[in-house]
């Protein structure tokens, strides 16, 4: 599908003199899942708020469902559903009443049927008559998403949808997202769980220092990291210090976990050379693990400056598909 559900260019936003979005561009194809990642405070919620017309940008062009967020606010609002940190759930109503309120607000036909279907889909039938104030965090999240689905919005913003959910509820939520996409819905997802983005997103953008640091499919982003690493862990601090001092320049040290990370592509030849080197400097680690790149590595590398984490440096030149900006 080639049409854009969301098109953003030159988006800027500052709070006072604090620049949060410093000119970001991205495009979300209709019927896909697009995930925005970034460290705490990177501006993910700010982006969602602007796209969902809950906040105005300082500059830039933003089109959602073909409507400009400034001049076509009404059109945008009728095409989207928003769930997450600004949930519309009313604690003093029951689950069913909340859904009813949403159905009335959106003037949904056959509201009762739609509501019963949603309660069933989200496994909320038994608690439908109970006040939301008695719901667990997970139940509230499910109700929040169920309310978002009333009226079948074509684009859904999911802001950290599975935070606080148990593993089973998380998987239920993932399946719901997949079903929605299979029906043609576009999902804009922010999450702090990289495995969630890996699992669900067609494309991922990493926000860092007010800019999109890299953008692509999960595989494309992983290819930005030159190989994985071998992790050596020690239990004896003296052995760790000895190994750290003998370490090659490009390896990273973690004093807290007494572990060393040596860049490696994980091939037999590389592993042999690392083992030979360990023998030659008389180092015996208590644990040796081979690690191939995952989204955690990508995230740590791309957001290194913001989070202050020591990670592998990303090579920006070795991928044709992913764009590291
Ligand atoms: N209304 C506001 N006024 C002033 N500063 C704000 C306001 N809203 C957000 N900020 C600041 O802007 C930055 C981005 O916030 P935002 O909530 O968009 O980040 P985020 O990526 O969603 O973070 P998190 O992962 O912690 O939810 C933060 O430094 C935050 O403190």
UniProtKB/TrEMBL annotation:
The keyword Nucleotide-binding applies. It is a peripheral membrane protein. Residues 6-234 form the ABC transporter domain. Coiled coil: none annotated. It is found in: Cell membrane. It holds the Pfam family ABC_tran. SUPFAM superfamilies: P-loop containing nucleoside triphosphate hydrolases. Keywords: Antibiotic resistance, ATP-binding, Nucleotide-binding, Transport. Its main location: membrane. It comes from the Bacteria. GO terms for molecular function: ATP binding. InterPro entries: AAA+_ATPase (IPR003593), ABC_transporter-like_ATP-bd (IPR003439), ABC_transporter-like_CS (IPR017871), ABC_transporter_ATP-binding (IPR050763), P-loop_NTPase (IPR027417). This is ATP-binding cassette domain-containing protein. It comes from Streptomyces flavofungini. The lineage of its organism: Bacteria, Bacillati, Actinomycetota, Actinomycetes, Kitasatosporales.
